[in-house]
Amino acid sequence: MLRRRVRAGFGGLVAAGAGLGLGELAAALVGGTSPVVGVGTQLIDLAPGPAKDWAVKNLGTADKPILVGGVLFAVAIFALLAGTVGASRPRLAVVLTIGLGVLAILAAATGRTLATNPLTRLLPGVVTLIVATVGIVLILRALGPPPSPRAVGSAGPDETSTDDARPSNPLRPGRTDSEPVPTAGGSASDVPGFDRRRFLVTALSIGAAGAAGLAVSRLVPGGVDEATRAAVKVPAPGSPAQALPAGVSGDVAGVSRFFTPNKSFYRVDTLLTVPKVDPRNWELRIHGMVDRELRLNLADLLDRHLIERDITLTCVSNEVGGPYVGNARWIGVPIAEILREAGVQDGADAVRSTSVDGLTIGTPLTALTDGRDAMFAVAMNGEPLPFAHGFPVRMVVPGLYGYVSATKWIVDFEVTRFADFSAYWTDRGWSVEAPIKTASRIDVPKGFATIKAGPAVAAGVAWAQRRGISKVEVQVDDGPWRPAKLAAEDSIDTWRQWTFRWNATPGNHKLTVRATDAEGHLQTADRAAPRPNGSSGLHNTLVMVE
Ligand SMILES: Nc1nc2c(c(=O)[nH]1)N[C@H]1C(S)=C(S)[C@@H](COP(=O)(O)O)O[C@H]1N2
Ligand SMILES: [Mo]
What we know:
single chain, alpha+beta, Sulfite Oxidase, Chain A, domain 2, Immunoglobulin-like, 5-stranded antiparallel beta sheet, 12 helices, 19 strands, binds ligand MTE, binds molybdenum atom
């Protein structure tokens, strides 16, 4: 029986794997969501807030591959168990396998997905269900009938008859079929009727079909390619960024570069696969409480008055001293101009923007009309937006955390009232309004670095978008707060570098940093977790001086 169970467990794995492999292929061919990604996305959306906070904090951008790996691992364990069960109770195995497929279909039916039409949405899950079910049936048949009449005789809920039940069907073995129960560790000769060759050929063919499906799915291009993105020509902005003042960057090695390169720019979103929107089909709908509804395609946007601005983005999930902040030079269309053209009606106080995957973000209307450089951005650091950062168009609003302002892959922009909707993250316990808090970070030395005694340098960045930074101070151990040297300011919407020179004496020391914004408010030392509206507290670093 043991060998039989091992074989059946292997069969379960093969069937589920083939289902997923061909499900991937179906998803790639119709442009739907892969079942694994669909289930993973649902897990992201259903995950309780603290679990998500933990993942962002401890896994960072690795959270996505880890989630996909976790889903695959769970499916593998489940399939292995289902198969093993199938050694004695084939029908239960089939029911379990169908359950797995139904789960994939449900995730696709109810979840956020890039696929809008129900057929493309559901097809991959349906393919997975059918392939995995047919697979397990064929494999268990090839395994021969269960050896123990007692095992199959124990009528469970899975013993009810179904249409596919035929006497010859090993999934519905006759109860008169009384073979002796093989003794434990039984003879090498399997139960009568087991044909090893047939079993292997069946299992391996099904496995090969799944592997081929997976391999081919990877060759099908998903969305547009890099060349199409790079071919988008962003005209020279009518309002270029002001000349960068000399000295925005200090000369200390290891400090954040003033402009964060696109490749290393932090990325926060809820997607397991980056949408590759076709710029030729992209359209933005502006509607809701407006006098005139507008529909703009990319050419319409690029034909408009473009502004170029340096703006530092910050994620609300950033911990004190954390990495989710980056500065870039953006080109885009002022949102205020579009709103003026559409004609905002009285009573509106918010905009609900939606991305191509159905995620929603709520932004206060005032932040879009009060004169700051809120824009529909089309370029980032001199190139069309990278796919991961919202190609072809995203919102950028100085001074607000990304989750209430920075909608990537935007397709819908509805002028409305906060009272009339709730957005993705506010449904998950984050504040409705979230201006960026004044913060400062030590980049060098790194925590627990060992440095030489004598003249030493510390450096980092500080930000208070919309207000600007007027002072940064550093404290060594419990000593007095001493001013750091500020690099030149680009704009009040960008971060500012600072440098601090001190005389390091042997022993362990703690460096702590704090900033004051240009309105004179000192950064608070009160510790707060990112939820609900951004972390606060002072960043410190321990160094060992020899
Ligand atoms: N469509 C979409 N836009 C989104 C998000 C998202 O999950 N989906 N995340 C937001 C959050 S929380 C932040 S901090 C910024 C991050 O932008 P980046 O990934 O380009 O750095 O995008 C915002 N825009
Ligand atoms: Mo964020």
